[in-house]
Write a structure and sequence with these properties.
Blueprint (H helix, E strand, L loop, with lengths): L1 H39 L15 H32 L4 E3 L3 H13 L2 E10 L5 E9 L7 H12 L3 E3 L12 E7 L3 E10 L9 E9 L2 E8 L4 H21 L3 H13 L10 E7 L4 E7 L4 E5 L2 E5 L15 E6 L4 E6 L1 H5 L6 H11 L5 H15 L8 E10 L3
Antiparallel strand pairs: 1-2, 2-3, 3-5, 4-5, 6-15, 7-8, 8-9, 9-10, 10-13, 11-12, 11-14, 14-15
Length: about 400
């Protein structure tokens, strides 16, 4: 009887994902067909005014309509691609013996938690994930993190709670997800200064996890200063976070943000984009820059400068992106800055001077390091803050054990 129950559980576990996978692929095909329907109308676009005597205003509106149609095609294709990738993600269920399953069930019972099912899953990167469905038998306040700690001991692997898990285990059946703990952890620090004639900074930033074990830092400098610059850079940072968390590819997310800036008011809406994405399992790091200032990697007293020569978002229909990859080590620091930091250094030699300043500091706390860099720049310009200045510092260390 017990073997039959286990067999039914395994059979249900294999059928349901296959059903969902096929539905996702069907939806993806439908969205691709919709994108193609937009593409088919391209041959029927109106004749340009060089050939027909049309009003210039009509021409401008027709040109914008055609550009928006092209963007719609790209966005629909990206949505279809996300669905396809989700459906085809490789997952392998790792078998668990009945004896081990009983041991875990008994241990959970000891803390008044009833187990309904438990699955060990190996994802496409080879890392282990755990799916567990439980409920609280008594009205105690056991958290999802405490369940994760217990599972770590029982399964012999260090697990952390997934981002979207409920905080407490409730009286109803709930499914919790856990992933292997990352090899590295980070600390962040920020220092900011507002332009002396303004009340609000035109720089904005964010740190967020797109998924467990992947930290992303985004810094944007809105062109100009004050409220308008702040609004533009806020939009860039917030949209980038939303798109990446939703699963959009980096290039498409940047393209859509660029389109949003260009679709704004008649006055130019331009912002830089400086993005750093870190895999805390492998230590791999990727920078994407669009019109942003240099970034730096500090390894003891050595400093690696990452620069770009492209223009900000909101200028061209297709933004120019520069991507650079690096491998991080235990004790490395990443420093990201806005243009105002370099501009504050005398005689336009900021790009040459700042690496020396960063390399000479012995501070280990990211917040203290960020403040030290900012204070040095303010001292160099004799306290005259002529542009917004922002310094982000991220320190990365290998976890013990």
């Amino acid at each position: 009887m017990k073997k039959q129950i286990l067999g039914e559980r395994e059979e249900f576990n294999s059928i349901l994902p296959e059903y969902g996978r096929r539905k996702l692929l069907t939806y993806a095909d439908s969205i691709r067909e919709l994108a193609e329907s937009f593409r088919e109308t391209e041959n029927n676009r109106e004749v340009l005014p060089e050939e027909v005597n049309t009003d210039r205003r009509d021409f401008v509106w027709q040109k914008r309509l055609n550009e928006n149609k092209d963007l719609m095609i790209e966005h629909l294709q990206e949505m279809a691609q996300i669905m396809t990738q989700l459906a085809e993600e490789a997952r392998r269920c790792v078998p668990m013996g009945e004896r081990r399953y009983k041991q875990i069930s008994h241990a959970l019972r000891e803390v008044d938690i009833q187990l309904k099912n438990l699955y060990l899953i190996e994802n496409e990167t080879g890392r282990m994930e755990v799916s567990i469905t439980v409920k609280n038998i008594k009205k105690n306040s056991l958290s999802s993190e405490e369940i994760g700690d217990l599972l770590s001991v029982l399964l012999g692997m260090r697990l952390v709670s997934a981002q979207d898990n409920p905080f407490f285990v409730g009286a109803d059946w709930q499914t919790f997800y856990y992933v292997e703990e990352a090899r590295y952890h980070v600390l962040t620090g920020v220092a900011k200064a507002v332009k002396e004639t303004e009340k609000i900074s035109g720089d904005n930033y964010a740190f967020f996890e797109t998924q467990t074990g992947n930290l992303t830092a985004v810094l944007s400098d809105g062109m100009g200063s004050g409220d308008k610059a702040c609004n533009d850079s806020t939009m860039v940072v917030e949209l980038m976070q939303k798109f990446l968390e939703a699963g959009f590819q980096m290039e498409m997310a940047i393209q859509m943000i660029n389109s949003a800036l260009m679709a704004g008011e008649e006055n130019a809406n331009m912002s830089t984009l400086d993005l750093c994405s870190m895999d805390l399992y492998s230590g791999e790091c990727h920078f994407v820059k669009v019109g942003s200032a240099c970034s730096y990697i500090k390894r003891q007293h050595l400093v690696d400068r990452i620069s770009s020569g492209n223009l900000p978002l909101g200028i061209f229909q297709k933004p120019d992106m520069e991507a650079v990859g690096r491998s991080l080590m235990d004790g490395d620091y990443i420093i990201m800055i806005s243009d105002g930091v370099l501009d504050a250094l005398s005689q336009g030699i900021g790009e040459d001077m700042l690496p020396e300043v960063i390399g000479s500091t012995n501070l280990e706390n990211p917040g203290e390091m960020a403040n030290a860099i900012l204070n040095f720049c303010i001292h160099q310009c004799r306290g005259r803050i002529r542009d917004d200045m922002t310094v982000l510092v991220i320190g990365i260390w290998k976890k013990e054990g």
